[in-house]
Design goal:
Length: 203
């Protein structure tokens, strides 16, 4: 069977995030843990930390992902046209898979200020925003990680829910609200935007 994108990963949340990303762009997508010689894809997305690599005959290009502790051998790594280290900015993957034209498809609903300097300290669950430190709960940290990995593009409520492990988009909205309140308490500029019918966005 032919697919435009096949995702090889045993990390269900991560794989679902990628699946939703490309389904939303009308790509045919399959998620699997094990290679299958009957599958072919234009692009294979391989989780180097958890999945086995497909045969070179089963894909056009392969992009690898790792948290920095990849178990894949050097041969598998060399077969990847790109290796992204998690967490990464989704725009990098989107540009690699979909091409530059897709990068022009943003439709934010409101004007945005300049890009802010935002970094995350995952070990301490701290966000640094233009030098201001904000301590986050685990769920708030997951929300920020997901939004920053898609930075510059709207993230749907469903994608965000999958990223943070919530089954209800309404619960996700609550975490976004809490996060906004914390950010607004220390910084005057808007950080998280709502894009009508598309979700949330950090420019």
């Amino acid at each position: 069977m032919n697919y435009q994108v096949v995702i090889y990963s045993s990390d269900a949340v991560f794989a679902r995030m990628l699946e939703l990303e490309f389904l939303a762009r009308d790509r045919s997508v399959l998620v699997t843990e094990q290679p299958n010689d009957e599958l072919y894809s234009d692009v294979a997305l391989l989780d180097l930390d958890s999945a086995s690599a497909p045969s070179p005959d089963c894909y056009g290009r392969m992009i690898g992902f790792t948290r920095g502790v990849a178990l894949a051998d050097d041969g598998t790594r060399r077969r990847c046209s790109m290796i992204l280290h998690r967490p990464f900015e989704m725009r990098l993957l989107r540009r690699e898979v979909l091409g530059d034209a897709e990068m022009l498809s943003r439709t934010p609903a409101e004007p945005m200020n300049r890009a802010l300097k935002i970094t995350l300290d995952q070990r301490q669950s701290v966000l640094q925003l233009e030098g201001q430190r904000v301590r986050l709960t685990p769920k708030e940290l997951s929300v920020m990680q997901c939004l920053l990995s898609h930075r510059g593009f709207p993230v749907s409520r469903e994608t965000l829910s999958a990223c943070i492990g919530e089954s209800s988009a309404n619960k996700t909205d609550v975490y976004v609200c809490y996060l906004r309140q914390k950010l607004n308490a220390v910084f005057p500029q808007k950080v998280i935007y709502t894009v009508r019918k598309k979700g949330y966005l950090i420019p």
